[in-house]
Amino acid sequence: MLEYYIPLGIMILFGIAFGIVMSKASEWFGPKNPTDVKQSTYESGMEPVKSARERVSVKYYMVAMLFIIFDIEVVFLYPWAVNFRKLGMFGFVEMFVFIAMLMVGYLYVWKKGALKWE
User: Fold this and answer.
1) How far from chain centre, in Å, is Cα 6?
2) CA-CA distance, 90 to 83, in Å (whole number)?
3) What tens digit of pLDDT does each residue of 3-52 get?
4) Which of 17, 25, 43, 99 is deepest in the core (most CB within 10 A)?
């Protein structure tokens, strides 16, 4: 029974080895002539103005998380739209409940002031 897992183990080992080799290939074969300009922090071609160790506002992370949450939820609308006719009224009601729950969450976040950037 264990012999059925041998190809899977070989495939996993091959995948790990391939990942390591490909991630190190640029280090092994790439040019090695570092300069001060190449080692400096890149900020759109401008000189860095602040340290990378400064605190970032929690509002930034809150807006980013909310964007990800609501953006990913919209992905669930595509399969529904493709199968809209086949799902019939049941699918319509279910999607209406789903969108209503999203709207309640959005209104809650809005009333809490999480979207205000001050």
Assistant:
1) 34
2) 12
3) 889 999 999 999 999 999 999 998 889 878 888 777 776 656 666 667 76
4) 99
User: What is the rounded CA–CA span in Å between residue 94 and residue 80?
Assistant: 10
- Phi first, then psi, for residue 46 (nearest 5°) are -100, 160
Contact (CB, 8 A) for 29 and 18: no
Cα separation values, 55 from 40, 42, 93, 118, Å: 21, 19, 45, 16
Q: Specify the pTM.
A: 0.49
In contact, 70 and 102? CB cutoff 8 Å: yes
Residues 72-117 have pLDDT tens digits of 888 888 888 898 899 899 999 999 999 999 899 889 988 988 878 7
Q: Where are the alpha helices (DSSP H) in 6-76?
A: 6-29, 36-39, 58-75
The three-state secondary structure class of 53 is coil
